[in-house]
Model the fold of this input.
Amino acid sequence: MNGSKTQTQILSMPEAFRGKGGSRQPVLVVVQGEEIGRRYLLNESRLVLGRDAEHADLVVVDPSVSARHAVIGVDLDGQRYGIVDLSSRNGTYVNGVRIEDGALRDGDKVFVGGTVLKFTFHDSIEEQFHGELDRLMHLDSLTGLYVRRWFDQEFPRAFEHARKVDRPLCVAMMDMDGLKNVNDRFGHQLGSHCIAETGRIIKVGLPASAAGARFGGDEFAAWLTDTALDDALDVLEAIRARVQAFEFRRDSVVVEPTLSVGVAELTRDVTGPEELLRRADDALYRAKKKGRNTVAR
Done:
């Protein structure tokens, strides 16, 4: 930034919030847009807001937001906050007024592209509440895995981070074998039981650094950070084997669905997160073609 934009305008915190020190955490909350309900903690002195996960600290999933759209200035000691537009394509607005350099007060609404973020403060109790709300919103109630919407939002960030720090990343696409037959013969209650148990097996089998999601129906996906391809194959083979060995029982009925898995790794020739997912999906197709109940790369 050049000229006046090197100094973010920040004004004093409103009197109502004085004297509460570190117990009040400044946040931006998405109140309109793709990621409604998402919170961004403002815990650094300078945070770039934008669409590009490689160059922005606060990533907004919105094609009308510039790669580097605006910068948030935070002075926690002085309890002052401000925002500067970074010559964005569609401009930055506070409470409907276009700004280049302005202050932020509690309740202000920041408009960037088609997304609206509310600037406010959370104390530790509110933070705990919103953290639990986030967890409930992003988890599939049947399996305990993340929902697809969360995966679609977060995987590009994991991809960009892995590429930026030059660390290994693998992604897996998974699909249950034989579930249609279970549904047709024994009903969807038993089918849902099979999906639930398979999801739990996947969740338990993934390492702590991985993230798994239910894509819908009997389809699952996961990414494994800091994990080379051979190690990822070992993890997913163990999950596949556990599904095969599991006794899917409801009342006196026992069924034996299995799991097919396709795995792809981030290499230098992968152009983006969509291509890496496509490669994993292609590998899943190969697993199905080999006769199902297998892991393919």
